[in-house]
Amino acid sequence: MKQWLGITLVLLFLSGCSLVEEVNNSLDYTEQATTFVNEATQFAGTIPDLAQEAANNLDAKEKLTEQLENMKTQIAEFNGLEAPAFAQNIHETLVGYNETLSGQIDEYRTQIENGITDFKNTEMAQTLSNIQETMDQIKNLAP
Question: At what angle do helices 124-132 and 88-113 cross, to 10 degrees?
């Protein structure tokens, strides 16, 4: 009898630890997703002015290229996250937007290499807007 009670207590403790770990993972994912969307929002805010400046300034052009590469790195890192089950749909949505954005960044870099820095005529702005719109969904994530 004591042995069963001991086993039961150990199992309850372990399941409690699992629950705490799940909550921590959930909070961690939500924080990382929020950080990513905030970084994408900041990127969306700085790129148009930087692109305009890059038309006439080599330093700005280099900074623009660097910002594009940094965003691609952030995309890859975010896409590599393992989302908890309750956040799987939003994660898949963000990964889809990110894949689109990554391709658009590559296209834009090619334009920059060819001397075209016009950001307004790219589709990146809409993709970044789509990413920004996921913030409300992220805020409402709950395990």
Answer: 160
Cα(99)–Cα(79) distance, integer angstroms = 9
Tokens (6 digits) for 131: 């990413």
- Name which of 97, 102, 106, 126 is nearest 33 in CA terms: 97
Structure tokens at 57: 């300034």
For the segment 61-116, what is each residue's pLDDT rounded down to a tens digit?
Answer: 999 999 999 999 999 999 999 999 989 999 999 999 999 999 999 999 999 888 88
| CA–CA dist 29, 100 (Å, integer) | 22
pLDDT in tens, 114-141: 888 888 778 999 999 999 999 989 988 7
State the CB neighbour count (10 A cutoff) for residue 7: 10
Domains identified in the chain and CATH numbers: 30-139 (1.20.120)
Cα of 46 vs its chain's centroid, Å: 17
